[in-house]
Each structure stands twice: as C-alpha cells, then as structure tokens.
Queue: 2 jobs
Job 1
Amino acid sequence: MPKLTAKSATLLVLAALIAVTPFFFPSGYYYRIGALIFVNGLAVTGIVILTGYAGQISLGHAGFAGIGGYACALAPTHLGLHPSLAVVLGAVISGVLAYLVGRPILRLKGYYLAVATLGFGILVSMVLNNERRLTGGPDGIAVPELGLRGLLKDWGLDLTNGEFWYFFCGLVLLIGAWIALNLHQSPSGRALRALHGSEIAAGTVGIDVARVKLQAFVISAVYASVAGSLVALQNKFITPDVAGFMHSIEMVTMAVLGGAGSVLGAIFGAGILTLLPQALTVFAEYEQLVLGLVMMLVMIFLREGLLPSILRKLRGRGE
Amino acid sequence: MTLLSVEGLGIAFGGIKAVHDVSFKVEPGEIVSVIGPNGAGKTTLFNMISGVYQPGSGRVVLEGEDVTGMAPFRLAQRGMSRTFQNLQIFQNMTVLENAISGFHLQEKGPVLADLLHLPSSRRRARAADAGARKLLARVGLERAADREAGNLSYGSLKRLEIARALAMKPKVLLLDEPAAGCNAVETEEIDHLIAEVAASGTAILLVEHDMKMVMRISSHIVVLDHGEKIAEGAPAEVSRNPAVIAAYLGTEEGADADG
Ligand SMILES: Nc1ncnc2c1ncn2[C@@H]1O[C@H](COP(=O)(O)OP(=O)(O)O)[C@@H](O)[C@H]1O
Ligand SMILES: [Mg+2]
C-alpha cells in the first residue's frame, strides 16, 4: 500500500464521510443538520489554527461570524454586490478587523487576547442588536439567495435546497481543512506550533512571535467569517445570535472537545456538539446540565480531546 | 571590529544585584567560557546578552551595533543563537521538526504560499528538512528524527537544542551548560562538536561545570562570583588565580555540583 500522509488520510476520511453519510439519512431534514455540522466544522478549523497550532485563545470569534453573516445580508442590498462577493467582502473586513484588534494585543504575553476578543465579540453583538435601521436589530434581517443552486440546475444538476447546501458546505469544509493541513506542515505553521511549544525558544530561532500570532488570528477570523456567511446564505436570514457570546464559547468548546490539535478531531467535536443537543432533548430541561457534564468528563478523562484520545487507545490495543 | 562586546552589564532582582558591571569581549572562532559557583549569575548574564532579560545597566554590542535588550528574534536575525540550561524544547513537535525550526529564518516565506501549498513553499520546507536531517546526524540523533521530542532522554534533548541552534549558522552561539546531565561519552562528543563549530569561525560563549572540558577547549575564561567578574584570562592563568580558588573553595557547592 502506498504511504498515506496524515494530510491525505484526513481529507479522504472527510470526503468519504461527506459523500457516504446521506445514504443513511432517514429524511431530507438531515441534510440540514449535516450542513450545519460542516459550517461549524469550518469555523472550528479556524480555531484549530489559532488555538491548536498557535496556543492562543479567542473568546470572541462569533463576532467575525457575525460580520461574515451580515455582510451577506447588507452588501447585496446596499452596495449591489453579488452575495458571493459579499462573502469575500465579509472575509476581508473580518481579516482587517482581526489585524487591528490583534496587533496591539498580541505583543503582550498572557491571556490578553482572550479578554480583548471577549470585548470585541460583545461589541459586534451590541452593534448588530442596536443599529436597528441597518441590521433589523434583535429580530434579524433577510439574506438574499446565493443563486448557485439555480445555476447548477441550468447545467443539469438538479439538487433540493437541503442537498445543495449539504454538499456545498461540505466542499467548503474540505477546502478549509486542506488549507489548515497545508499550514500545519509548512514553515509558517511550524512557527505557530513552535511558539505554542515555547515562546522563548521560538524567539531564539528568529520567529517574530507577535507577528505570527497575528497571522494565526487573522486567518482564523477569516474562517469564522466565511462560516457565518454560509449560515446566513443557507438560512436566507440572520439574527445577532450568530455573533453572540454563547456562539464564541461553542466554537472553542467544539475544538477542545474534539481535539484542538487536529483538524479532523475538531470537526468531529463540531459534529458531536451539533448533534448532542438534538439527542439530549429527551432530557428536556436537564439538557444543558447533561451537556455540561459530558464536557467536564471529557476534559477530565480525555484531556487531548475525544478523537486523539480514542485513536491513541485504539493504537495502543493494536500493538 | 569586535564580534561581541559586553560592557558593564548589570541587573538587579528586588534590590539584589544578580549581575554587576560585567565586561568582556568575544572574537570570531573563540571559545569564551563563563565559570563561577552556583548562583553566580552566569545564566542571568546569558539572558541579558540574548535579550530574554532587559539589562538594568551596561551595553551589549554585536558587530558594532548596540543591541542591548533587543528582542531575541531580532538578535537571531543578526546571528546570535543560544541553548538553555533548563531546556526549551518544542515538546509538541517531533525531533526532526525541532531541528527544522532552527531553519526558520531560512525557510520562512509568504504565508499565502504556505496556506496553498505552492511549489515555492514546498521548496523552502524541503531544503530545511534536508538541512535538519544532516544536523541531526551530526549530533547523533538521526534515528530519533520521527519521535516525539518529549520522549527523548535529557542528554539527547541537550544535543537536539544544540542542533537547532546550529541550524541558524550563528556568528555567536551561547551554550548554557550543554553537557549537564550527559554521560562521559556524550560529554566528549559535545566537547568535540563545540571545538568543531568554533573552528568553522563561530564564536562560542560557554557556561559549563565540567572543568576538565572548560580548561581544555576555552580560548579564555571569565570568572563570576556573586554577580561580579573576579578574574579573566587564559585557562592556565585563571586556574592559578587566588581569587578564583578562594571563590570555589569558599562555597559549599563545588563547581561540579550545579544542576
Ligand atoms: N528572574 C529572576 N528573578 C529573581 N531572581 C533571579 C532571576 N533570575 C535569576 N535570579 C537570581 O540571580 C542569581 C543568579 O542566578 P543564575 O544566573 O541562574 O546563576 P548561575 O547560572 O550562575 O547558577 C540567583 O541568586 C538567582 O536566584
Ligand atoms: Mg545557570
């Protein structure tokens, strides 16, 4: 058997899962959940770069998702941009904002980034809630149709709305994972992981620690922004909840639960945390309680995250 | 022009002078050893020279440029590299990746090329990979290349740090107790390696407790006691110096007892 690199193995597993899972869907509704998992997986892949590679924590990444989402709502109506270009505009704005927020903060050592991003997230959320004339306030705002499904239909590929978004988000997730995996083995990614291992040693080998942290922060902000855009376009509607504090926490939790150090692990975490609340509805009002308990147990007993821990156990048994 | 010139360097922690008014010079290809009892201030001196600590007083001049308190990554760009007494290994990486990290300044490039896995990015990474494997062979770690760095023995990690520092082809290399925790054979190997590196023109600033090694390979020796320079000179001179003998005999921990 030819030797599989970790990168191609991850991409193959991911592509296979995306392609095969629909055969087991009991109803069309599950395409929606699948697409949601992929979008969450995309945002969490950005967290892998920031937290898993570089060891930095952001508690405000939902703010970037909000910017990506509202770019798709506002840019087509106010600027006449096609929704696909609105995604790009949102990503650019998110990247620039991440640069401006991150630049002064990432020079400092310690947990300032967590605190500053917390403030940033709250700020975005407040603006979206309060600027009613522009954003529609807490009730949200309509988002125009992306239009790609119609195009595909003209080309002879007729997908239901659910199917289209499932495969489209799956494809974007694959691209996002490919980029994150490229980074992992590249000089830039090595610099990120080096500073995670030892900031002092990283400086000693010539890594401009503040600069590469900023790179990771900007890249991960773009991931969150694109994820926010996809949610908005799929739902054709968006509310400020997408930028809310809970959503920021959710992203970090998904990454850490699944295994922040590995792209596949983090996507796995996104899957679990997207599905679990659906499964836990049987616990009715205790749902949140059970969810919290599960996460605590994982963190206590499977410190590296679910997937890496499971793989390690399996490998250990194989030997 | 002098390669590295340390001029009246000093620092105090909470009013206690850890290093006070220390000066010396290092020329290309020299091995300058800094010795002194435990707690004399050797590591603190290294930390000031390499930009980890901001000196309270004095200057560090590298090739005529005042680099006092400059961030370590800028010093690295100017050709200064170091290892650490208490090991600063990237535990989250493999042995090979640790060595490759030493090539950062040579392998870094546009982040976009890295994200998209462009040929230019692959070329940079491949060159660093090849260089790192060569260095690992030089310190006897080639067979451990794919192991998690955290799983290596202490002596191996010491050599890995040296390999990482050498990857930068530094003009000045600061080694803080490179042979500590190594057995006699490993110490001998490190000894040879240091001499080899110096012979290729790299200046070496060395802290080492193995006096036989220090006496054998040093061009000259700076002796610290209680943060102050009490002697400086060729190995033979220093070992006869009464103040040096008194400093060593006067402390409970002998020179070889440091950890
Ligand atoms: N960051 C620090 N804060 C307070 N004291 C320090 C610090 N670094 C070093 N010292 C003190 O400086 C003195 C010299 O320590 P050090 O340079 O490690 O000695 P050596 O390397 O010669 O054994 C010691 O008394 C030590 O406790
Ligand atoms: Mg010391």
Job 2
Amino acid sequence: MQATSSMQSNIKIRNGKIQIKTFNRSNFVLHFILSFLVLFTIVAPFFLEYGAIDIQTAIFYTLDNLKMMFLQPALSQVTLTAALYQILITLALAFLSTLIGAVISFFLAILSAKNLMPSYISNVIIAFNSFIRAVPTVLWVLIFAIVAGLGSVAAILGMTLHTIAYLTKAYAESFEEIDNGMIEALRATGAKWWHIIIHVVLPQTSSYMVSWTFLRFETNYGVAIAMGAAAAAGGIGFELFMASSFYYDLHEVGMITYFALIIALILEFISIRIKNKLIGSKS
Amino acid sequence: MQQVLNKEPINSSVEISKKVQKGEVILKVQDLYKSYNRGTPVLQDIQMELKQGEFISIIGPSGAGKSTFLRCINRMIDPTSGSIVFDNTEMTSLKKADLRKQRSKIGMVFQHYNLVSRLSVFENVLHGRFGYKSTLQGVFSLFSEEEKELALSILDKLGMKEFAYKRCDQLSGGQKQRVGIARALVQQPKLLLCDEPIASLDPNASKIIMDHLKDISETMGITVLVNLHQVDVALKYSDRVIGLNKGRIVYDGVPEKLSNSAIRDIYGSEIEDLILE
Ligand SMILES: Nc1ncnc2c1ncn2[C@@H]1O[C@H](COP(=O)(O)OP(=O)(O)OP(=O)(O)O)[C@@H](O)[C@H]1O
Ligand SMILES: [Mg+2]
C-alpha cells in the first residue's frame, strides 16, 4: 500500500488514469504546431484556386510527360560524350567545394569544439555557423553572384560556404566525443596544444571526418546539379535546364536525369562502403 | 643517483626511515587548499614532503580528494591557495612554458589508462616525449633514435616490447596500464603520480602493475605517489601511507603503524566492512 501513498504524493492522475508524462510547455507547443500542420495539409487543397485546369486531364498529361521522360529517354541535343563530360564538370564543382570546405572546416571545428577551446571562442563560431546554415545554398550562390557574376565561381563560393558551416559542426561534434582522459594524459606530459590536435584528435576522429566529408560530397553533387540550372554554373545541371526550359525535350531530360541518378547511386554506394569500413572497424 | 639505487629489502620501519632520509626532498606541499567554485573545501591544510625514491600511497574514502590532490601537484587542477615546490620550483605560480617543463618531469598514470586507442603502443609511449618537443617537432613526430630506443627499452622492461606495433584498443587492461606506465617513464620523470592504477584490473594484473611501480621507485629512484582504494595493497607496497578524509590528512606514517583505529579515522564508520575483506 506504500505504492498508493507515493502515487498520491507525486504521481499525476487525470480522469482516473495515471499520467505517463507531465505537462511541459515545449511539448505542448510542439503538439499544437504538429496538429495544426496536419489539419492544414488536409484542408488546404479544398481552398486552392485551380482556374481552368481540369484535374483529370492534368493528371493524364503529367503521367504522359513522366512516361516520355523515364520510359523513353534519349539524347538529342547533347552527345553521350558531351553528357559524360558535363557530369564530370558537375562532379568537379562538388569536389572542389567539398575539398576547400573540408580543409577550412577542420580548423574552424578545432576552434568550435568545446573541449579544445574556451567557450567564448567556440560560441562565436557556432553562432556564425548557424547563421550560414540557416540561409540556403542557392541564396548564398546568388549573393556571391553579385560580386562574382553568375557562374561556376559564385557556385563554388556559395557551396563552399555552406559546406564549411555543415562540416564544421559535424567535425566539432566528433571532436567533442573524444574521451577527455586522452587529452588530459597528454596535457600532463607537458604536450602542447597542437601536439594534442595532431596526435589525439586527428587519429581518433579521422574516420568520422572522412565519412562526413564524403556524405557532404554527395550532397554537394546534388546541389551542383541544381546550381548548374539555377546559377548557370555549367555541368549537367545546365544541360538539364536547357533540355527542359529551352528545347522542351522531355526525352533528353529523362536521359540526363538517369545519368545524374546513376552517379548519385554510385556515390551513395561508395559512401556506405567507406562508413562501414572506417567506423565499423573502430570497436 | 647512487643513494636511490639502494636495493636493500625493506622489512622494518627503521630501515625505511633510514632510506627515506637518504633521498632529497623532491616535493614539498605547504598549506594547500582547494575548493571548487568557492564551495566547501575539497582539500584543506595539506602539508607533505616526499623524498626521492619513496613509494607513497594515499588512501581514503571516495570523495576524500585523492584525485584532486594528485592533479594539484602537476597543476592539471589549480589549487586555491598554498605552495607546492617540486624539484626546487614553485609550481603554483608557473606560466605556460615553465609549467610544461615542470610537467614533463612528472609522469601520470590513470585508472582508465587514457591511451590514444587508435594508435600503436609505440606511438603512445613516445607521446611521453612531447614535453621536450617544440610544436613542429611534436606535430611531425620527430623523435631521435635515442628516444625511440629509450621507449623500446622501457617497453621491454615492462614486458610489452613484443606489442610495440599493436593498436592499443587490442590490448587487455593490464597491458594497457603497462603502456600507460611506459608513457610516463619515457618522460624520465622524477615523480610518478598514479590515480588508482589498479582499480579496473583483476588481482593478477594488479599485482603485475604494483610490482612494476614498486620496482620503478626502488631501481630508478623515481618517487611514486599512488592513490589506492585497497588498503591491503597500500600496506603491502608502500614505504609510507597517507590517509585522507574529507580533504584533510589524518594519517601520515609507515604502514606498520597504521592501526585499526587509524584506519577508522581515515574511512569513518564504513571501516568494519573494509577490515572484513
Ligand atoms: N570538477 C569538479 N567540480 C566540482 N567538484 C568537484 C570536481 N571534481 C571533484 N569534485 C568534488 O571534490 C571532491 C573530491 O573529489 P576527488 O575526485 O578528488 O575524490 P577522490 O578521493 O579521488 O574520490 P574517488 O575515490 O571516488 O576517486 C568530491 O566531493 C567531488 O564531488
Ligand atoms: Mg579519484
């Protein structure tokens, strides 16, 4: 009967049932927003203005277009070698921005890891990073386009900036997971700060950094395609843009999409392999 | 160095005091206080003199301040007030470069070994030389042949030479701790601080580690200061036992004179359970 008495003291009961959770303002707000969004999604289509579009024909044409794209892909404006070459350009864009971003991120991550730096320094970098990440890559590219002009330079700058913000956070988090004892042990020998970075932080986190970096490379590949179209950065994205908006050649759009997809799959496959090999071998 | 190479068996307190008097004072702690965040003091009024080649155990209940005291000595933790003179240098006022230099003369061994798990035994042992290196020498691992030979001879002495190229995460606890000791010895320290070196080890591995530590103090003339939880181990190996309770030294003397009532002072009321063990 002790249980009952303790229940009365601090266990919440509502409508005769024991409450598992206690009321909590942030939970309440979260539930409220989620319910609102669900409701909105269900109700909104009834209020949309469709104009003269007949839904049935619209769906039919869409399916027909999709069929043209994906079941009858073909190249007409670009040759196969040209398409492959453009894919190479897109990969190069992604590679360059990932590489530059990764190198800069490594140093920024050291500065923003709480176990390696005083918190007033790390907080500044973390705040700065959050700001960069909050602005979408495309917007950064367009911002850089003001000075660099639309093209690959602006695209690389914008993508690099976003990569830096992303990888700095990822690297810093893996740095912070390092067992503090290792750092303590080296400090106790009289080791310098850089010795600890190179001989503790680097070996303990290198595999995480490689797999995060490759993940970002995958993302940047996707972004590079979009940039080719949106910011005239060249590469396969630009061909895609030309095929769809200039030549209205849906067969070609389909073919290019397949190309891009195959490369993405290959990257994904490599990424998983790297992850399993490096991180799996840790324990 | 000669006086510390004295290998006579130590079996009476008279001989111990003789031996102790031969060594010069390596560490002198006076009026040491430490409190975290201005709370209640964790260490109070600590006075201590350690001599070269001595083997000293600090025993005391959990939370007595043993780890804090050890870390105050090499300034991994800054004491609140008091004086710590190690090797004729006041530690409490040291700034960066000088502090590094002093730290390089103090080895530290940890309960959880604190090895860089993804690096080899050899690499971990050489980490003990960083205190003597410039930034670039350390970053590029520029170790001289003498340093490498020193590392290998120490590994050999500890029976770990055959594992030199093995990754540390593939070693057993006892082996890891021997690497931890090797890393500290390669510093060529004058003082070895061991924070519960055997707390995570089984009795066999514990004996190997304690035997090595004892040997280090006797044959190399290094002062060994060990935090221990096991009273019997402390009694068996130490030249001198220091009992800490609530941040105060309540016993400081030879193990032979550590009476049950003194143990009760150190551990408080939980003592009955301890003696039964
Ligand atoms: N970083 C810290 N901040 C605040 N208080 C601390 C900190 N580290 C230790 N303390 C407190 O100081 C006291 C002594 O801790 P310490 O770790 O030195 O004890 P110990 O004798 O080594 O205990 P154990 O045998 O459990 O290792 C404890 O009460 C602990 O809560
Ligand atoms: Mg402790």
